[in-house]
Design goal:
208 residues; alpha+beta; Immunoglobulin-like; 2 domains; 3-stranded antiparallel β-sheet; 17% helix; Caspase-related_regulators; MALT1 protein; MALT1_Ig
Length: 208
Amino acid sequence: VTFLKRWLLEDEKITVLLDKVAEDMGTLEITRGRQALELRSNLSERRALTDPIRPPGQDESSARNLQWAKAHVLPESRHLRFDCGVTVQLGFAAEFSNIMIIYTRVVAAPKDITKCEARLTDIPEELDVDLKCTNKESPEELGSPLAPVWSLGCPSCCLYNRICGLQKLRQELAFTVYLQYRYQGMDDFVEERQRVNVGRPLIAKLNL
């Protein structure tokens, strides 16, 4: 054991390390001249005592953890700029891994625009979207039981949309941001639209 301790932390093949231990032992008077053990190995790969220890099932567990992490990744918040000069923030929050909140907020508008609103339309049909849960002025109107939790990270003065059933999504999530605004001194509203693709959010990434 005394001689083995000397080589324990060396990144050497096990058989090479034990040969060195045997050589050191040969320097002792008590073992000098005695026959040493012959060491053989049938290991298919090089192994050292410094190799990291991997418990059984670690790779499988790591893969599950990676998949679980993917299922909780939200799209990044972005800003959409329209031809009229209006800028709309598009943000996201997660209720569950298969339920996402999308909110829109007008963050900049020219002075001659007196009223402006950005709504979501053209949401994929395969998703469970209740029209009663789209373009609402407050999180509470969505009927989300976790609204007090996820709404903490949302800004004020938004329109909220609750998108359910993301595990059913068979393509990237695309929808339209419908901008409606009115200029000062005008009665009629003007419309602009932008198509947005946010990829596969949350559990949709797993292609279940």
